[in-house]
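Pipeline run #58 for the internal structure catalog. This entry was flagged by the ingest filter as a single-chain record with no existing model, so it goes straight to prediction. Upstream metadata was stripped on purpose; only the residue string is passed forward. Reviewer on rotation: M.T. Logging verbosity set to normal.
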Amino acid sequence: MPPTFTIGIEEEYQTVDPLTRDLRSHIHTEMMEKGRLQLQERVKAEMHQAVVEVGTSVCNNIKEAKDEIRKLRHDMIGLAKENGLRLASAATHPFGDWRVQEITPDERYKNIIEDMQLVARANLIFGLHVHIGIEDRETAIHLMNHARYFLPHILALSTNSPFWLGMNTGLKSYRCKVFDKFPRTNIPDYFPSWGEYENFIKLLIKTNCIDNAKKIWWDIRPHPFFNTLEFRVCDLPMRLDETIAIAALIQATIAKLHKLYSANQGFRLYRRALLMENKWRAARYGLDGKLIDFGKQKEVPARDLILEYLEFVDDVVDELDSRAELEYIHEILKMGSGADRQLRVFEQTGDLKKVVDYIIEETETGIEEQDSSASARKVG
């Protein structure tokens, strides 16, 4: 049986004080309590008290995923406002300081901090995770091997964390550099089979490196409990349409790679060290830089490579019914990633609070279409 290519999307939001524009804990409000009543297990707190995570159910296609993530954003924005907060969708806060942020009282987070100390406390970042359903584990590990090549391209599109502790970091995705202080992060090695991957996990568990495979935090991983490949490389984008376009691109990538795999035509595999060169370029320069085309052995502007990438997946897009959603990639190429837009606001105003205001405004863009879109789909 071929994979279902189902989609699940998780977004991690910032809760922000509307007066100071700084991060503010939601834990002493009714936001999470009401959120769980409305959305059940699709909303949860994270390690830092100014982080809220939402996740869709298993969606059959990108249109279902868009309806769900729009509703989740819509409801969480409303709950934040009811509790005197605002929701902000960016991968770092422009000037928030992790040193003054409280940790959520939970045994799991307590254990992580005990294990990783300051590295865990400083991990005040916000990501987008996309799951694609691949039911056969052997197939999943082979598709992961090939999909690694595209992770820097996907990161470049999602870059949305140019500021850290009130400073312009000079990177488009500083979130990457915060997170790679954790062990077992970044782009994974090649695994010849599912059995070899399982043996790797068993060795780490046996030697007390990890207690389960959830502590593998690679940019792409086979999810330990769901039959999915989970893409974890992305910064959290500002706009709903950006999240959906990137998720559609990820789904199309896996569908195309599976089409090649089924025909015994794998995408060429490259060394992890080479792929990491492209990841650095994507984190540093985003869409304005050059990535290496390893086949041609030369640098190519990131925007040109992304257009080539769209051509590569084009023959599976109509089967997935995601052409309209994927078209928004062209809009991202025109207006710039979230990092580009944050930097433009800062250049124009010199005020990081204005940058936060812009992020909040962008977070709410396209959300009010929820009711008409959902009802139209029901009628259809």
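catalog note: The longest strand covers residues 7-16.
catalog note: DSSP finds 16 helices and eleven strands in the chain.
status: ready for reviewer M.T.
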